[in-house]
Amino acid sequence: MATTSSKKLVHWWDVSGSSIDGALLSRTPTPRPTSTDVVVSTDPDSTAAARDRFDVLIDTIPVPHDLGPYLSLVAMDGTLSQVGYLGSLTVETMDLLLGRKKLTSGGSGGLAATAAMLEFCAAHGITADIELLPSGRVTEALGRLERGDVRYRFVLDLSDLG
After folding, report:
1. Domain with 68 in it: what CATH number?
2. Is residue 74 situated within a structural domain?
3. pLDDT in tens, 55-94
4. Looking at residues 95-120, what average pLDDT do you find?
């Protein structure tokens, strides 16, 4: 099911029949080059329009959050796959029962699976959108994370430590 658009990794998928239609959920309405379809998770009209739309939703949010709003976007017999946050999460059973929805997790798959995935990405030119910061700006990065002022994942360049 790994399909990408112009070297960008799309984290959210809408599977329709035999074709795969990628979509992206975002907290901000800023258009992303990764998808022609952006669902803004903080906009009630946008999420209402996407209700019960996704057969598979891959959740990469790395902090504790309510799964209920995301389960409402999953279609009948669909799956929400939680791969972002590794701690405890609470889910309302009714959010799963209504629509016969499934909640799964992926884990890392181990070293061999991770290596195979990285080789696949390298062979197909799949990259991630990141913001590279020198290690001296770690406090700034943490502050921006707290404020939600992050467009891409942060990567700290530790080469200046040695």
Report:
1. 3.40.50.720
2. yes
3. 888 888 878 888 998 999 999 999 988 887 778 888 899 9
4. 84
Burial-class residue 118 by CB neighbours within 10 Å (0-12, 13-18, 19+): exposed
Whole-number pLDDT of residue 148: 77
Report the domain count for the chain.
1
The secondary structure of the chain as a DSSP string is: ----BTTB---EEEEETTEEEEEEEESS----TT-S-EEETT-HHHHHHTTT-EEEEEE---S---SHHHHTTEEEEEEEEE-S--S-----HHHHHTTT-EEEE----HHHHHHHHHHHHHHHT-B--EEEEEGGGHHHHHHHHHHT--SSEEEEEGGGG-
Does residue 42 sit within a domain? yes
Question: Is position 68 within any domain?
Answer: yes
Range of the domain at 69: 8-107
pLDDT of 118-146, one tens digit each?
888 888 887 778 888 998 999 998 898 88
Is residue 154 one of the residues assigned to a domain?
Answer: no
- pLDDT-derived band at 36, boundaries 50, 70, 90: low
